[in-house]
Amino acid sequence: MKAVVYERYGPPDVLSVQDVPLPEPDAGQIRVKIAATSLNLSDWECLLGRPAYARVGGLRKPARNILGSDVAGVVDKVGEGVTRFKPGDEICADNLNLKGGFAEYAVMPESAAAFKPPELSFSEAATLPQSGAIAWQGTRLAAPGKRVLINGAGGGTGSFAIQLAKRAGAHVTGVDNASKLNHMRSIGADEVIDYQRDDYTKAGQYDLILDLVAHRSVFAYRRALKRGGTYRCVGGTTRSLLRILTAGGIVGLATGRSIGVLVVKEGPKHFEPMAELCAAGEITIHVDSTYDLAHTADALTRVGEGRAQGKVVVEI
Ligand SMILES: NC(=O)c1ccc[n+]([C@@H]2O[C@H](COP(=O)([O-])OP(=O)(O)OC[C@H]3O[C@@H](n4cnc5c(N)ncnc54)[C@H](OP(=O)(O)O)[C@@H]3O)[C@@H](O)[C@H]2O)c1
Questions:
Q1: d(Cα 302, Cα 296) in Å, to the nearest integer?
Q2: What's the predicted TM-score (pTM) here?
Q3: Is CB count within 10 Å lower at the N or C end of the chain?
Q4: Of 151, 133, 168, 163, which Cα lies nearest the Cα of 225?
Q5: Is 130 near ligand 1, meaning CB less than 6 Å away?
Q6: What's the gap in Å between 223 CA and the centre of ligand 1?
Q7: How many angstroms does the Cα of residue 89 sit away from the middle of ligand 1?
Q8: How many angstroms is it from 214 CA to the middle of ligand 1?
Q9: How far apart are CA 67 and CA 272, in angstroms?
Q10: Over the stretch 299-308, which tens digit does the pLDDT of each residue have?
């Protein structure tokens, strides 16, 4: 089968399309003929091997040589003991541990997969697993009367998070670069901030901050939170994440706020609610662009350079 392979961390030109053996499903696994794989910033980080946490499991070279974890496709073969799926079933899955989505076939534990809602195309369903789960969990505290700020809101996850927070009745501020301000407004943000011009931590106070790209100090986050407010991040610079993990809890506790990292729970239970809302037309999926397998490097570059407004998808 064809796959986009890399053997060392580096820029997109370390990727090449190769013929590799068809993977066989082990016990408890399914093999899926991939129709579409959506990209996350984590794919870009695992390609570069930066920030440092992207090398977990593979310090010197990638632990998995085919990237791509948010997939949708058709079950092609099942391993011993698989009970939920059979060949021909249409699924979408978060295959974060095994990856392999930039290929014609991938194997994954059956527990990583959910049935694809028939209302969604494969490309749409592939956008949901990680971004949907993060947005769903990260906006849980959004409610009428609450002021919610989403930092990095113009990208794949942020586009879902803005809509969920608005749907919950919150007043939503989206922060991203100038080229994404209109996009954030168009999907419901009440206010937008260009992070290259203004520092949102000096612009007001919020009940909930969901930070997709943390890079400031815990004191800045404390300043931006109302008393009783909550700050959660899911990604950012290693320096910022370490500070939040070490000092965030203490600074928060001492000042009547909660500052920490959102430990994202993976799996169908956490993205199926989003899939249902999208299938019902209550949340809109914004596909920024689609690429074919041979142009996976271009797709990754688009995400890595921060040009995407919504999700980028490789259709296989
Ligand atoms: N399991 C997990 O915990 C998990 C799984 C997947 C992803 N993640 C994390 O979730 C985060 C979001 O992923 P994603 O796929 O939604 O990424 P994405 O589509 O690239 O969106 C991130 C957005 O943040 C913007 N941005 C960059 N620097 C910023 C800054 N200093 N201030 C405000 N905005 C900034 C980017 O725009 P520009 O760069 O163009 O300015 C981009 O629009 C990432 O940090 C990723 O590592 C975590």
A1: 10
A2: 0.93
A3: N
A4: 151
A5: yes
A6: 22
A7: 32
A8: 9
A9: 23
A10: 999 999 988 8
